Amino acid sequence: MIISVIGAGYVGLVTAAGLARNGHSVICIDVDDLKVNAINQGVSPICEAGLDDLLSSLTSRSGRLRASTAYREILDTDLSLICVGTPSNSDGSINLRHIRDAAKRIGQVLGSKKSYHVVATRSTIIPGTTKDVIIPLLAKYSGRKPGKDIGIVYNPEFLQEGKAVQAFFSPDRIIIGELDKRAGNLLAKVYGDIEAPVFRTDITTAEMIKYASNAFLATKISFINEVANICQKLGVDVYDVAKGLSFDYRIGDKFLSAGIGFGGSCLPKDLRALVYASANRFGYPPPLLKAVLDVNKAQALKIIDIAERKLGDLDGKRIAVLGLAFKPNTDDVRDAPAIRIIRVLLEKGALVKAYDPEAMQNARNVLPGGVEYCTSAADAIASSDCILIVTEWAEFRDENLYQSKIVIDGRRALDPRKAKAVCDYQGVCW
Ligand code: UGA
Prior knowledge:
There is one protein chain. The chain is an alpha/beta fold. The chain has two domains: 2-212, 3-Layer(aba) Sandwich (Rossmann fold), CATH 3.40.50.720; 238-427, 3-Layer(aba) Sandwich (Rossmann fold), CATH 3.40.50.720. The protein has helices at 10-21, 33-40, 51-61, 97-110, 129-142, 164-169, 181-190, 203-234, 238-246, 267-282, 287-311, 337-347, 360-366, 377-381, 416-422; strands at residues 2-6, 25-29, 65-68, 79-82, 117-121, 150-154, 174-178, 198-201, 318-322, 351-355, 372-373, 386-389, 406-409, 424-427. The strands form two sheets. Strands 3-2-1-4-5-6-7-8 form an eight-stranded mixed sheet, sandwiched between helices. Helix 8 runs parallel beside helix 11. The structure holds uridine-5'-diphosphate-glucuronic acid (UGA).
């Protein structure tokens, strides 16, 4: 099949590369010249395990994947996958400007296509968006009939950054929300080589499945963090409690790592958007999901409270922050706890010495001036009054790095018993 993928971010690029690897011819359409050039040279514009190798084999050698800034290239494809970003507005609501733009521009191109074409959205969009926004724009700008001339699908992605390539080829499930059966059949065929349960449903249900998935994952994290805060009062180790819980197959052992809470480009943004839409549009202000956000917000700042308890006033204190990315193995700092923590430290007059193996440049782009960027963890640790471990990169997991230092661990990066033998160690909620 010939497929166009609109938007070459994490989701679009991994999807494009995965589909090309499975034998389809794929063209990525993106407005960013730099990204397009990088992809055409077989270089990934983002840091994602396995993506560089995949791109270099698919662009230069097989030629099955290329990129362009020209929307008209959609004309020669059978299927367009919308993978553009859906960021937050300042009130937490979803910002659909890229979705609107993509739907309009796809519609304009499809106006001159005579044969059937499927438009499937992979971006995370509030339930109702395909029906209320995408379908009307496609109809208006193409002059063709959605559900008949243009097939419509919502096909959410469940890719975890850092494991996205692997998750593309071995997903837990494939969700196909379809307006017309013909479009659903085409999507099922596109993913035919991938072994996974396929669940076909209507579009709004599929849109809600995506939000419910991320809301549930976020709820698990805030749940274990709340349990951790109680455990800490009792002198009980939450990691032992989580282990005890995990033997119950209904609970499992995933997403029960307590610490400074969830960040990233998806869980916080999606939860805020769902809470906003539910309260302001659907008529149900969801108390549980609001609490999940509140617990998460407070959790990151606990690391600063502990630093103040240990050091007193932070004004003039040298604080090493290890880890800037929202989790290890990515350079992504969107909604990263480290960014919030550093802002507060700077407000309190602390001298911040930051280090991350991959995310330094992205952090520099969003943080105010005044942060000292170090060349290694050892460099940040030396001459610091206190060390905050904010992201559990493998290279921070060596207790010997922290001899005689004050260490506050936000991610259970260290073994508390071993760490206590070499330094003044405190876990954020254990
Ligand atoms: C998340 C979901 O896990 C994916 O299934 C989903 O497809 C994706 O969002 C998306 O909507 O595109 P991702 O943003 O890559 O994926 O990040 P996660 O691996 O879920 O981690 C999110 C945050 O939770 C990180 O800051 C991580 O450190 C934190 N976390 C995770 C915990 O604090 N405790 C845990 O037990 C697990």
